[in-house]
Amino acid sequence: MATMARSFLQAISTEETAPPLRVVQIEGLVVLKIIKHCKEFAPTLVTGQLLGLDVGSVLEVTNCFPFPVRDGDEEIEADGANYQLEMMRCLREVNVDNNTVGWYQSTILGSYQTVELIETFMNYQESIKRCVCIIYDPSKADQGVLALKAVKLSDSFMELYRNGNFTGEKLREKNFSWMDIFEEIPIKVSNSALISAFMTELETDTPVSQGDYDRLRSSTTPFLENNMDFLIKCMDDLSMEQQKFQFYYRNLSRQQAQQQAWLQKRRAENMARRAAGEEALPEEDPSNPIFKPIPEPSRLEGFLITNQVSNFCSQINGVAGQNFSRLYLTEALHEN
């Protein structure tokens, strides 16, 4: 009996400690639905629900459906919630996977690192322990690139976010940097044997596809210009965040100087009172405004902007490197 009880407790503990998420497995049909929805409404940003199963270290995405485009009105948001519940009910009636595993959304030039995304993640975390967000960038499709990635919030960041403590001291204590906010999960696209056989039948005898031709385009000026424009705006936002901290430290140093001046005055007054045989006054006065602590600005916004700056720089570096490769290839072809 003791052995059975011990094995039962071990089984419970094993279920509670789920293995870390290693890969997101997406059905090919789901990828096509996401691409179709995002490209139809581009450049408007759209979102949708991901449905599937959480199996061990693999998150399987087997279906999805789009959310209606909303403008922020409360009535429209309520209609969107009712639409989501109705869709889930209809899928359940036809025996389709209706377990929510996250959501997908489109983005422009990969700039998805926002406070709204983090808040959405935290709302999902209340009911779903492991959820992901599929990010698709339709602006990169013209270059023959499938810009699809799966991201989630790191456990260390969620702990800090729940505590609402993004001060410099706390971040240094946790050894937390701007790179530790998001975690990118590898994506694996899977198809059934029947679909794979059908795709094989559809393949042409041409050795190259349209995507290969798109990757050989040397005109990427609009893409680089847009990246530079977004990068400049991010640098301006980062400069404003730095000005907030400069203003905070300036006020903090001014307050410390006022506290020292008040303390010296109070100590001189206490020396005079002791000499007169009177009781000394306390050297701290919580009611005095100069002793009220100045709240330190949150560093979350600066971390998110730094993530965006890093993303734009990586994209510019990648596209520029590819352009040089194309130019060298074209030059070699002309010489031959």
Description:
The protein is of the alpha/beta class and 336 residues long. The chain contains 10 helices and 8 strands. The chain has an 8-stranded mixed β-sheet with strand order 7-6-5-4-2-3-1-8. Helix 9 runs antiparallel to helix 10. The longest helix has 55 residues. It is elongated, with a radius of gyration of 28 Å. The N and C termini lie far apart (83 Å).
What descriptors fit this protein?
alpha/beta; 10 helices; 15% strand; disordered N terminus
Please summarize what this structure is.
This protein is α/β, with parallel strands linked by helices and 336 residues long. It has helices spanning 2-16, 28-41, 74-93, 115-125, 155-163, 168-174, 193-202, 210-215, 221-275, 300-335, and strands at residues 23-27, 47-55, 58-66, 100-106, 132-136, 148-153, 182-185, 187-190.
The helix-strand sequence is HEHEEHEHEEHHEEHHHH
Number of strands: 8
So how many helices?
A: 10
Oligomer: single chain
Give the overall silhouette. elongated
* Spatial arrangement of strands, main beta sheet: 7-6-5-4-2-3-1-8
The Cα radius of gyration reads 28 Å
How many strands, what sense, and barrel or not for the largest sheet? 8 strands, mixed
Q: Percentage of helical residues?
A: 40-55%
Structural class of the helices, strands and pairings?
A: alpha/beta
Overall mean pLDDT stands at 80
